[in-house]
Amino acid sequence: MIFYKTLNNWYSNNKRDLPWRQTTEPYYIWLSEIILQQTQVKQGLPYYRAFTAEFPSVFHLAEADESQVLKLWQGLGYYSRARNLHTTAKYVANELNGKFPDNYKALLKLKGVGDYTASAIASICFNEPSAVVDGNVYRVLSRYFGIDTPINTTQGQKEFKALAQELIDKQDPATFNQAIMEFGATHCKPKNPNCDTCPFINKCIAYSKGEVENLPVKLKANKAKTKYFNFLVILSENNQTVLEQRKGKGIWQNLYQFPLLETKSKASFEDVLELAKAHPILKDKPFELSLYNKETIVHKLSHQHLHTKFWIVKLNSSIDEGVSFETVTDYAVPILIGNFIEAFDF
């Protein structure tokens, strides 16, 4: 059995009808791959459609304001991807006359483009036999070959990349790469894979040894840090609130949020009241403070768990440079803030 022939045959009969599979235009392939990083297809598809509708070419994306890009990205998380997307669009449009590099090594030089994305674009758009390796590929190969090398180690990454490169269909790398990703996503799934109907069942080492659920192996990540966020949702008498843009490195860079009081531990009403009184916007101004969410919202990021409370601050005066209630939804905000805004309904 030749691995890629069996795989490609499965793909021809089972592939999903997805819009980026109807084109080999680098802009659309690049856009889909950036959106789908750390994002499932069902979640990423609406974003892909929204971006292609709003920015039908790399030139349109390059001309957009960053805030517009971040607003459209809202809810996908990992906002550095959106910023890198915008930076690369401007570079391709302005420095490369709208033409993406046509090979793996040159694609790697684009901001936000790593081994996986460069391989996908190079193979799908330019027929270069560069194998993709993502979570789906790790899973398929580790199970089929019975490999227990941890996939989140340098050794594991090199081992699986070399193996995928050895297996790729040199004549049709685009189909192979899309097929192995699709197979891992829809058939050789993380949980409850469809082993009974698998075309590789007679050759799969993990299946023969009863190790399917144990592969691939991934070393445990460091424990996430716990942080305590208290957002002040200021409501002025002239129907305005306050949104502040996060600056510098770190989570949510350039996104907007309500004034934040970060504490070292869970804050009481009295703690927040004292901190609020000292806040530059509220200092020496009469206001009423109340807790919006009785239960703490725990927002889990890859490296942080944010224990969050929203505090309503009714201000008995106006705000000089506030945001009107009607325009709150125009700002690019983290999904944590966005969910509050939707529920609070300014």
Describe what this molecule looks like in 3D.
The chain has helices spanning 3-14, 26-36, 41-54, 58-63, 66-73, 80-95, 104-107, 115-126, 135-145, 154-167, 173-186, 205-208, 269-277, 335-344; strands at 225-235, 240-241, 244-245, 256-257, 260-263, 287-291, 297-300, 304-315, 323-324. Strands 1, 5, 6, 7 and 8 form a five-stranded mixed β-sheet that branches. It has a two-stranded antiparallel sheet with strand order 2-9. The model has no long low-confidence stretch (mean pLDDT 96). It contains 14 helices and nine strands. The chain is 42% helix and 13% strand. The termini are far apart. The protein has two domains: 3-214, Hypothetical protein, domain 2 (Endonuclease III, domain 1, Orthogonal Bundle); 225-344, Alpha-Beta Complex (Nucleoside Triphosphate Pyrophosphohydrolase), CATH 3.90.79. The longest helix has 16 residues, at 80-95. A hairpin with a 3-residue loop joins strand 7 (297-300) and strand 8. Helix 2 runs antiparallel to helix 8 and helix 9 (135-145) crosses helix 11. The protein is an alpha+beta fold and 346 residues long. It is elongated and about 80 Å long.
